[in-house]
Amino acid sequence: MGAVTSGLYNAIILYASFLWLLLVVGYYGCLGCLEDERVGLLNLKASINHPHGTALSSWGGDTIVADCCQWECVTCDNKTKRVIQLDLIYIRSIEGLGNWSLNASLLLPFHQLQILNLYGNELTGFQGLLRLKKLRVLDVRRNDLTTIPILSALPSLKVLYLGSNRINSSQLRGRYLSKLEVLDLEDNGLMGSVPSIIGTLNRLKSLALGYNNLNDSLSIEGLCKLSDLEELDISGNGIDGNLPPCFNNLTSLRTLDLSGNNFKGTITSSLFSSLKLLQYISLSRNSFEGSFDFTSLFNLSKLEVFDLGGDNKNLKVETENSMSQLPLFQLRVFRLSECVLNGESRVIPSFLSNQYELRVVDLRNNGIIGDIPTWLLVNNSKLESFSLSGNQLRGPLAFELNAKHAYMTHFDISSNLIQGEIPPDIGSILPNLQALNMSRNALHGNFPTSIGDMKSLKLLDLSNNNLSGPLPQHLLRGCISLSSLILSNNNFDGNFPAESNLTSLAHLFLDNNSFSGKISRGLLKSSALEMLDLGKNSFSGQIPDWIGNFPRLISVVLSKNHLEGVIPTGFCKLGELQLLDLSSNKIGMSIPPCFNISNMKFLQLQSNELTGDIPNVLSRLPSLFILDLKDNKFWGTIPPWIGSLTSLRVLLLGGNELHGSIPLDLCRLRSIRMMDLSHNNFSGSIPPCLNNLTFGAQDGIFLTTARSGFLIGSLLATYSYESQIFANYIEVHGGPPNEDAKVDFTTKWRFESYEGKVLPIMSGMDFSWNNLTGSIPPELGDLSEIHSINFSGNHLTGSIPETFSNLKAIESLDLSHNMLIGQIPPRMIELYNLEVFTVAYNDLSGKLPERKAQFATFEESSYEGNPLLCGLPLNQSCSPARAAPKTPLANSDNEEKESWEESFLWSFGGSFGGAFLGIVAFLHFKSYYRELLFYFIAKNLTFLRL
């Protein structure tokens, strides 16, 4: 009985334990992932965080039942609780942990893993073989891979994202690619021809080869074999040649992106005729020519996106075909810019009147005439971006009564001929705008206060109009999202705002208006300010020291005002400052000793009252591109440290009181393009070593301040294009202008201003109006890229170097007002770019160069003041003097000489006698003069005796 009881008891205990175990397992299974996968995730976390990362903080827990299916970046199957997806995006990059190689064995616990995303983790490769039988998608974009992972143990893999790595064409091999349906090789190291293996991947549906260096157009034809291809992206490769006609065979094609290449020739109407499934076409940024009949696309009923933007000035696009019917499509995005649109009529495409689903309309720079087509806003209630800039639209901006376009975020009608006033209720018509650009028109009137109701507005550009009046307080307090306010070149006036609530303001351009008064503290709430331009106004007083409270400032322009006082020490706090322009004010003293800003590239202090030696603090600006100290009161010599500014492109020291010789240290400025030492007191000779300088050789650097990319970028709220290889959105951009450096330089007898893309092209050397002596070094003839030389107003001697005929790029050469001698080198007629030439007021002699090429255009004023020069255009002939008569015989010569002497004696004697008798007769009859003569003789008798 006891044995039975004991056995029964044990059975009950065993049964209860079994039930408890089932409950625990079931409980854990219901609550979370399997233990082996949980441990596997923790091991993977340790590898990702090596050596000292802290990412994935939710992975872990104090209890054994912590549910790893709830951890960040982890997705489990709802039924089996097995991990099926890992989205480990930008984990190591954010932590800044450096390059990393993943041990493939760490992934072995995840038997059901289907999607592995390691995007942006500085991954260099895998250690071992990836053995994931269920893996369908592998995403290793934006890493540092140089080889493709071995795919032999991934039998289910269909989608492989390898974009933005360093994989080259030689790595594309192996039969394991043949099962792929999606292959992304965008932005890698593929060069030349499209790898031939890609043409054999006949299961491919989506292929991205954009932004490599695949420039062989013939190899592109190999892609035409991929008959199942639905998406093809070969953008940004620089592919040359015509579009392959065989693209018409890709009848399954839904998406085609050929943008950013160098395709030439015509876009044939038959190219897309068989591609009935096309939804997305991008042909922008190519070099197409000839004519393109847009109506040939009218039968593509599924077309949603058409993009033909960029520089298409040689492409004629016709949308008005009287034989065509209305299009079968309803476009969402229509971009057609910078082409010859609709020939002489230049009308806006009429088919747009039958489009009702548009989100983006971009018809920039097409020369369209007529009124602003605001009916597009009426017909397309979800229109978000509207750009018609750079056309010839006229008339006022007029909206329908009680209009409200709530989806509109970008509205750009800049660079047209629009007149009238800005609608006063524009703030309620376009309440959700993020970017409003109406610059470069003929708008007048005051600033509409309703713009202050645009709470989402980030960019406002009304520059280059005739707007006037003060800035409304409602704008400065209401537009709380405003990042760029650009009101340059208008007639706005009044004092600088004393208060504002523009806490997001990064770019403020109020230049070339009529603002006055002191620069007030209204800007202080805009702590994110990066660019400030108040130039060409009437601001007065001192530059406030609190300008140092904007640590992000990279550009400050306060030129051409009435500012006075000293340069405040607040500038010393601006460690990011790249451009400072205080020119044409009344600022005195010198530059503060604390002015040690290593990022400074452009320092322009021209036309002030700065005094003393050139400050040594400038030697601590290693990144300086432009140093402009012209027209101040600096004295002393050029310091030897000037040669350490090896990045210097422009050095302007003219119009000061500097003296001494031109230092050899200037010959160390190998990147210099413009050098102005004019109107000083320099003496000595011109250094021959200046021939080592570039003076015009291009180095690809544009003299423009940096800024943080496009300012305004937003996704379309009501439309996204679904794609396996494209980002699933259409993005719209806009932004503030760059702050271009501007340089004033005298050339061609004119005072010119150079800025933007023109500035790097210009080069010159101006040493005029000093006390330089000696000859012009012939070595300067090596400066084959220089555009302007001015050595006038010195004491230079010797001849014009024969080597000056090698100055092939020279446009202006002024050697006037010196003491040059000799002949003008005849070979200088080979200077075919020479527009201005003067050697006036020297001691040159001989025949002028032939009146050929450019020398046929120079007039007498180019040579005046050289009496020994001859030839056209001077009136002085170079022909020899008329010959003297032949010498007579000797006896005839003696007879002639004796006859001449006899005649001379008779003539002289008669003249002397007649004069003597005349004086005696005069004194006889004029007693007063006779007495005066005798008195003079008596008074001076003693002197005569001596």
Protein model, in words:
With about 950 residues, the protein is an alpha/beta fold. The protein contains 10 helices and 60 strands. It has a 30-stranded mixed sheet, with no helix packed on it. The chain has a 16-stranded parallel sheet with strand order 21-23-25-27-29-31-33-35-37-39-41-43-45-47-53-55, with no helix packed on it. The radius of gyration is 42 Å and the shape is globular. Residues about 15-30, about 705-715, about 880-900, about 930-935 and about 940-945 have low confidence and may be disordered.
- What is the typical, i.e. mean, pLDDT? 86
* Tally of separate helices: 10
Share of residues in helices: 10-25%
Q: How far do the termini sit from each other? A: 183 Å
Principal-axis shape equals globular
Low-confidence stretches: 14-31, 706-713, 881-900, 932-936, 939-946
Number of strands: 60
Largest sheet: 30 strands, mixed
Question: In terms of structural class, how would the helical and strand content be classed?
Answer: alpha/beta
Strand content: 15-25%
Radius of gyration: 42 Å
